[in-house]
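quick one
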Amino acid sequence: MTVVIAAINGKGGAGKTTALMNIAGEYALRGGRVAMIDMDARNNLMKWWTDCQEKDFQPEGIDVYSHKTARGLGRWMEEHADAFDYVLIDTPGEDTSIVDPVIAAADLVISPVQPSKREVTGAIDCFESVLRVNEASGRNCKHGVLRTRITVTVRHTELYRKVRPIIEDKVGTYLFRTEVLERNVYKDIHNGIGTLQMQEVTEAIAKARRETLALVAEVDALLGDEPAAGYVA
Ligand SMILES: Nc1ncnc2c1ncn2[C@@H]1O[C@H](COP(=O)(O)OP(=O)(O)OP(=O)(O)O)[C@@H](O)[C@H]1O
Ligand SMILES: [Mg+2]
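structure w/ magnesium ion:
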């Protein structure tokens, strides 16, 4: 069965594209066939992909496609999704009409937050859309909030401390235990040098890899999947 994961937060810049690139890299490393769909008109993901190809750092096991409409996505899913183990859908950082159809196609929606009030609100809006689409379609798409770009300074803010009680107790969706820290390597990989998993292992890369492995283990647990063969935690 193809697993479909989407990154959605209508309040932009939260780390959607970066999170999906890292998750894709991990699944590909395990031998999974991964498709990524760029639904953002700014084409960040597609640009990364063409840069990687031009620089000869094309990630093995990952294909990137561009579809900007619900119809285009729907057609692609019908015709091609079966050929992949994972389909990762990247969405624009603004409220758009594609949110509901993407949720309707997804098994899991991840809402990254930095955390700022805007982005936490965006994540909550997204969860509400997931509930609504589930109700209408009778499906059970999961939702989780992922804290990204975390620094020591951020950890001292009041909002950071409130994220867990807000997300888990008040709103009632899942908060990933794994936090994605602010790391230079996550910026660097946007420059067409392949995935995180393709970088030469330095101490900094090893930390980012461990973080990503922990995130993917949580994703798998949420989806109720057994780790694929060859996976080493
Ligand atoms: N954990 C991180 N550490 C350092 N830099 C990061 C991290 N996550 C994202 N960035 C940087 O922040 C910028 C925005 O991240 P990204 O493109 O993943 O966000 P996005 O949610 O996809 O944004 P948009 O809504 O504009 O598509 C990128 O340039 C990326 O390099
Ligand atoms: Mg993006």
